[in-house]
Amino acid sequence: MKLMSFNFTKVDAKRENKVINKLTINNNLDIKEISEVKTSLLNTKDVLLNFEFSYKLNFDPDFAKINLEGNFILSLGAKDSKNILKNWKKKKIEEEMKISLFNIILKKCNLKSLQIEEFLNLPPHFKLPSLKLSSDKES
User: Fold this and answer.
1) What is d(CA 53, CA 72) in angstroms, rounded to the nearest whole number?
2) Beta bridge pairs of residue 11
3) pLDDT given at position 45
4) Cα(2)–Cα(42) distance, rounded to whole angstroms?
5) What is the C-alpha to C-alpha distance for residues 65 and 134, in angstroms, rounded to an integer?
6) pTM for this model (two decimals)
7) Which of 42, 49, 111 is nearest to 83 (CA)?
8) Nearest Cα to 12, choosing from 50, 58, 51?
9) 2 pairs with which residues across the strands?
10) pLDDT (tens digit, 9 = 90+) per residue, 65-80?
11) Shortest CA distance to 81 belongs to which of 42, 35, 47, 129?
């Protein structure tokens, strides 16, 4: 499985101008569509599949929202792609494949979300690494 391309088709963010004491951040990730890509540009036996996705972050209670949509194209073996398309007719994705797909989306969307959060002065949606002084002092 090779990632051939990744594109955002929609980037939407909104922040309300109000004070919030307790903020909860929820996310939602979904595969909206899977389709085969027909092309004669690549000389390969692999099949190209297009995956459309949506990624949403909600900063509750109604403080901010980040909505990202897009698509990515994977190059897969004929057997794997046939199995994915067959399952998708029932709107199902095998768990192992779903984890791989979601990891691709999360990797790109988390980075884009952090950029948007910085721009809108929102807290990061996950804990960023930081340095701390060690409590053990050596003499």
Assistant:
1) 8
2) 68
3) 80
4) 13
5) 37
6) 0.85
7) 49
8) 58
9) 75
10) 999 999 999 999 889 9
11) 47
CA atoms within 13 A on the CB side of 62: 1
Q: For the sheet containing 47-60, what is the strand order?
A: 2-15, 64-76, 47-60, 24-37
Take residue 122 and report the two structure tokens written for it: 């929102």
Q: What is the CA 102 to chain-centroid distance, rounded?
A: 6
Burial of 64 (0-12, 13-18, 19+ CB in 10 A): buried
Could you list the beta-strand ranges (E) of the chain: 2-15, 24-37, 47-60, 64-76
121 residue type, one letter? N
Task: Give per-residue pLDDT as tens, 29-79.
Answer: 999 999 999 877 766 788 999 999 999 999 998 899 999 999 999 999 889
Write the pLDDT tens digit of every residue in 90-127: 999 999 999 999 999 999 999 999 999 999 999 899 88
Question: Are the beta carbons of 16 and 63 closer than 8 angstroms?
Answer: yes
Whether the CB-CB separation of 64 and 122 falls below 8 Å is answered with yes
